[in-house]
Amino acid sequence: ETGVTQTPRHLVMGMTNKKSLKCEQHLGHNAMYWYKQSAKKPLELMFVYSLEERVENNSVPSRFSPECPNSSHLFLHLHTLQPEDSALYLCASSQDDRGLGKTQYFGPGTRLLVL
Amino acid sequence: GQSLEQPSEVTAVEGAIVQINCTYQTSGFYGLSWYQQHDGGAPTFLSYNALDGLEETGRFSSFLSRSDSYGYLLLQELQMKDSASYFCALSSNTGKLIFGQGTTLQVKP
Asked: What is the DSSP letter of A40?
C-alpha cells in the first residue's frame, strides 16, 4: 500500500470519447505528478503540480488536460485521444522540498487502451 | 540537458550478486535515486544517494560517485522475486526527477 490510489485501473475508450483519470494521495504531500509509461520506454513526465499550481507541462498535447483541485487530488481529463496514447498512466506524489531528495510515491496506474 | 544511461537487460541466477550501473549527465545535481517496478505494477522507491559512497538497505545497496557521474545498484542474495525493472532517476536543480530507461533484471533458478 503506497498511499496513492488511482481509478480506474483499466480503461478502454474510443477516439471520440471523453474520460477522466483520478488520483488521490493520503500521504500529506504537496506535489503531484502525471507520468506516461509506454512499453519498453522510460517514464515520461507529463505534468507537475506543486502546492496546487501547475509548474511543469512537458509539451503534452492539449487532448490531455490536468486538474488539481486540492493537494490530495489530481485528475487527467482525456478527449479525442489517439491509439498511440495507449499506455500506463502513473500518478505520483512527493513532499516538494525544492529538489532535495524528491522521493516519489507512485500509484498503481491506469492501463489505457485507445481504440 | 539531462540524461541517464543504464543497461537494458541483466540476467543472473538465484543467490548471486548483480550490479546495475547508471551514468548520468546534468548541469545541476542533487541526488540519484533507484526505483523498482514489477511487471504490471507501480514503481517503488528503493534508495537515494546525495553524497558519494555506499548506502545499504538490507540486500540492496546503492553507490554514488559524483566526480564520475556514476552510480550503481547492488543486489545481493538474489531471489526470484527480484525479477523486475530497475530505474535510476536524477534529482536536479530543475526540481523534478528524470528517469533512465530502466534495466530489466531476470533472475533464473
From this structure: T
> What is B27-65 written as a DSSP string?
SSEEEEEEEEE-TTS--EEEEEESSSEEEEETTEEEEEE
Are residues A98 and B95, on separate chains, in Cβ contact within 8 Å? yes
* Chain B residue set in contact with A, beta carbons under 8 Å: 30-31, 33, 41-45, 48, 50, 87, 91-102
Question: In the prediction, which pLDDT does A85 show?
Answer: 95
* CA B22-B39-A31 angle, 5° bins: 70
pLDDT in tens, A24-44: 999 999 889 999 999 877 888
Of A39-53, B30-44, B68-82, give the range with the top mean pLDDT: B68-82
